[in-house]
Amino acid sequence: MRVVVNVTDQTTSRAAAALAAHREITQVGLLRHRPGPGWEHRMRSVETPDGFDVLVTARPVEGFDLRQVTPSEGGQVEWASPSGLARTLGRDLPGAEPAITVPGRPLRRGRRIPFPAPLGWLRAEQGPDGVWFAPTDRPVAGVVAFVGDRARAVVDDPAYMAAVCLAAGVFCPPGPVWNHPDYEARVVELGLVVSSTTP
Question: Helix (H, G, I), strand (E, B), or coil: what is residue 60?
Fold first, then answer.
């Protein structure tokens, strides 16, 4: 598979690196962006996405006729992000609710959400899409799908987690990533560890 990445931030840059190391990716192009030192042999700068199969981008890009993978709405493959991963983890837990951490000052009120160590219980507010958002000032990020005393979760470096979630979207057909049965397996293959916990 040939993947072109629209590098606009740390997440898309790290997603390109994760994809360049994957055995099923035959070529990684960086759209109008030069590879960093040491990466020239694994990826190349391109002016257009012509000849590529998939475009990975932080936001949809107009005028390109190929499948776009985005971390939110708007691409053909949507929600390739921690939020999408949280929903994916809940697929095998009937009634599970998804939650993610976001940078910020921890809340004093709100629903208590069970994240694994080192995060522990955090207060959260529910977004309009049904995902719970728990601000934390810790240098790690968490996603969890929980119901009762059961939970499935990932805790990792925030930038790394976001990049892996975005990169894993290239292996999904069009639609939200949680509709694809292999999205979780692809995230694990790219380096995240999913744990099942009892809070």
Answer: coil
